[in-house]
């Protein structure tokens, strides 16, 4: 028996997953030079209409991601480098590897790599399903 049909199913499933992930990221987040977002996992929660999403975000030196919001809470764990977060209602704070930050749902915030190398964070979102994961603030 050939593995060809199984390989075809795997390729199609991978393509569908990739397309779904790309559709959930706004164009601004996908194409900003110096910002790489890698979707790691997405799962439904026991709370109806909610899901957990984990994304690795890498920022090149000096790169900033401007004011934006999420349709739910964001829990940040800094993996590497130094990132300055500017969260509405609070003063800017610089976090380094091992530091954490909680951003309430709908809160306008921005991030900037203030170190000399690539900065990385693990962002965990607890968000409403079927809404864009990120919206640029006006």
TrEMBL record:
CDD domains: cupin_BLL4011-like (cd02235)
Residue ranges of every copy of the Cupin type-2 domain listed in the record: 56-120
Keyword Signal among record annotations: yes
UniProt keyword terms in alphabetical order: Signal
Domain of life of the organism encoding this protein: Bacteria
Span of the signal peptide: 1-29
Short name of any one Pfam family annotated for the protein: Cupin_2
PANTHER family in UniProt: CUPIN DOMAIN PROTEIN (AFU_ORTHOLOGUE AFUA_3G13620)
This protein's name: Cupin
Organism name: Bradyrhizobium iriomotense
